[in-house]
Amino acid sequence: GQNIDQPTEMTATEGAIVQINCTYQTSGFNGLFWYQQHAGEAPTFLSYNVLDGLEEKGRFSSFLSRSKGYSYLLLKELQMKDSASYLCAVMDSNYQLIWGAGTKLIIKP
Amino acid sequence: NAGVTQTPKFRVLKTGQSMTLLCAQDMNHEYMYWYRQDPGMGLRLIHYSVGEGTTAKGEVPDGYNVSRLKKQNFLLGLESAAPSQTSVYFCASSQTSGSYNEQFFGPGTRLTVL
């Protein structure tokens, strides 16, 4: 079966750095996505990785290792507005997105 | 641009009632999707469409029907609602279905079936 695993909840302090991990087992691989979802709102796109390595976009970076079936999202200089759920999704061989359950990130002052 | 819009935002149904959720996008996207989101689970694809007049089943299609009569609209129907269909429903659209497939989501519809 296809499976995406990520921690259910994480807590971090404002101004700090946090890393959210995602491991996956899917039938084929055509890219990995990270989305942000604030409570009661729609998911919004954060990043896309299809090759191994680190993609940096401002305070957010995303890393991929295809051989290990592993990705992480790194958030730097945390702000209170970063409190949200972070969804990891993998595009499989049929170009369908398989979604993880999301990691709820709580930022404390 | 409004992006992706959904109506209604909230709805309460009794078991056995029917309803239609409407999704509209103004980005001229070819691909549209209906997902449901339940606590502790990832988004699950119900149905999707690769273009006007075409639809296909996703991971959890049972109990739902869809239509894409116009490119900008994608309708999700529940013919006989069941409590198991209590969920948040998200519509999304994308320009392509290739590997780089950023999906744009609507604000969601919260449905409760009593």
Q: Could you explain how this protein is built, in words?
A:
The complex is a heterodimer of chains A (109) and B (114). Chain A has 109 residues and is mainly β. Chain A contains no helices and 11 strands. In chain A, strands 2, 4, 5, 9, 10 and 11 form a 6-stranded mixed beta sheet that branches. Chain A is globular. The mean pLDDT of chain A is 96. Chain B has 114 residues and is mostly beta strands. Helices cover 0% and strands 52% of the residues of chain B. The radius of gyration of chain B is 13 Å and the shape is globular.
Q: What is the rounded distance between the termini of chain B? A: 36 Å
Radius of gyration of chain B: 13 Å
Class computed from helices, strands and strand pairing of chain B: mainly beta
Shape estimate of chain B: globular
Q: Which structural class should the secondary elements of chain A be placed in?
A: mainly beta
Sheet with the most strands, sense and barrel status of chain B: 7 strands, mixed
Short description:
The complex is a heterodimer of chains A (109) and B (114). Helix content of chain A is 0%, strand content 57%. Chain A is mainly β and 109 residues long.
Which characteristics define this entry?
heterodimer, A: 109 residues, six-stranded mixed beta sheet, 0% helix, B: 114 residues, mainly beta
What layout of secondary structure does this protein have?
The complex is a heterodimer of chains A (109) and B (114).
Chain A: E1 3-5, E2 9-13, E3 18-25, E4 32-37, E5 44-49, E6 53-57, E7 60-65, E8 70-75, E9 84-91, E10 97-99, E11 103-108
Parallel strand pairs in A: 2-11
Antiparallel strand pairs in A: 1-3, 3-8, 4-5, 4-9, 6-7, 7-8, 9-10, 9-11
Chain B: E1 4-7, E2 10-13, E3 19-25, E4 31-37, E5 44-51, E6 54-57, E7 64-67, E8 73-78, E9 87-94, E10 104-105, E11 109-113
